[in-house]
Please model this.
Amino acid sequence: MTPNDTLTVFHHPFDLQIDRLFNDAFRSVGGFTSAPRIPCNVYEDDNEFRVEMALPGMTAKDIDIAVDDGVLTVNVERTRIAPESDDARYYVRELDWGMMSRGIKLPSYVDHAKSSASFKDGILTITFPKLEEAKPRRIMIEAK
Model:
């Protein structure tokens, strides 16, 4: 995995869109290529931090999930069903084959040991509960 494959979740959404715009522009010129990245959503609520990844056509056994040093890494390998034709002229080519990887820097307030993962309808969902001290609390006022 290269540094460009790691998404730090503390970026402003506008910054991520600008990064994607420049990456797509360089890729379309032909001078820049990168390994395919797994599309994802990363979000949280009061109790959990979640990562959803789109992996259509994959099975759970094709997916490798690891957390190391605060980074969630998901690796998959999509094999091509039909061989590629030598005389094919593509007009649009967006289906990725081969190894794909995505790394996401996790916040320090999640509990890695209690994480869980599910895979349904091509969507991988990885859930990390927040540590108790990171959850919002109400402070009651004592009436005297």
Summary: The chain has one helix and eight strands. Residues 13-29 form the longest helix (17 residues).
